[in-house]
Task: structure prediction
Amino acid sequence: MAAWQPPYRCKSSGTRDFATVETHRKIRETIMKNLKKSCALFVLFVLLCSCLGACAGGATGSGTSTSTNSAPAGNSDVASSADSTQTKSEKGVAAKTGPENAAPEADESKSANPEPGQKELHIGILQFAQHPSLDNCREGFLKGLAESGFVEGQNLTVDVQNAQADMGICGQIAAQFAGKKLDLICAIATPAAMSAYIAAQSKGIPVIYTAISDPVAAQLADSDKKPLGEVTGTSDRLPIKEQLSLIREVLPDAKNIGILFSTSEANSVSMLEVYKKLAPEYGFEIVDSGISSSSDIPLACDALLKKVDALSNLTDNTVVNSLPLILSKAKAKNIPVFGSEIEQVRLGCLASEGIEYISLGRQTGAMAAKILRGEAKASELPYEEIAEACLSVNLQAASDLGIKFSDELLARAVEKFTEISSANK
Result:
């Protein structure tokens, strides 16, 4: 059987059959031409589809904008409702078609100098921990804004986040707020304020704080109360002289006062130093115990209760977050606990010359309104303090400890609790 030979070689001589080669060449050229035409048609088809899709998207966006801007001028309620509708619509488009459709929302919702009732503003509230004192601050802050014309759900959108007393989570929330380009961030408690300021200072977002005992120690203000950037607010600096005087009046034979504090909270360290400086004037010695996290509190509290005649609280968020545990341990040893503000007394502390936090929050809200209106920058507003201490007592706690308040002290008290409330109420 003869061996197979390529079709374009002559079997007899092995030379090329040029006629056959020419035929194959023409066939290849024809195939290539047809292939190029097919590719060109396919490319044109893809481009046509892309153009049609872009036109359809543009028409949808145009329709949304027209609907939003059709609210009559001068009707603030209708305008506010239309703005809210636009926000929801654009968020839906962004979720379906990608981030390019979300950009108009950020641009249109941002306003440098808003007027109440006309343009919707977006603010974030970063609360360091969940306990009644800070909750009251948040409630008062929103009341202060509302009294100044900024009402949540009408011309104000509020994003509330709680760090659950975790410094890492606190920093993450602050970074998220800074990335959203909010009109303002409200930070409740020292760790929240420090985190918010660090995250927002490069973004041009003003920060207003509340429930900070020492803004100077937190490096948010100078000794003249002037802000160190676009950050200001209100301080809950403790009336320590009044507190020590109260303890001496209620416990005339006491010598050692115990204080639990978080070593990572600048305001706590600062207030502890003030306590130590003033205590000798009232015949007391301060015995302190520093903790780094809430898990340290049970052992630290047990050890401290063996050395003191009473405990006095700071506005320390980590410690106050564990107040029910501290009160339970102190009660078992028949040792009174003095609070730093009214909510701690409601929960079972014996008494307090301290702060009323709803009023403090309302004062902060009024300051924030000035910033949102454009009347002043945060850097132009010195931080403020509550002028007077607020005496509160818990009659049930006194009865449990076998302590009787004088008539004169009771007459001064602005709040007299007759029962011990649960932290969940």
Remarks:
- The longest strand covers residues 121-127.
- Residues 183 and 382 are 20 Å apart (CA to CA).
- The chain is about 50% helix and 15% strand.
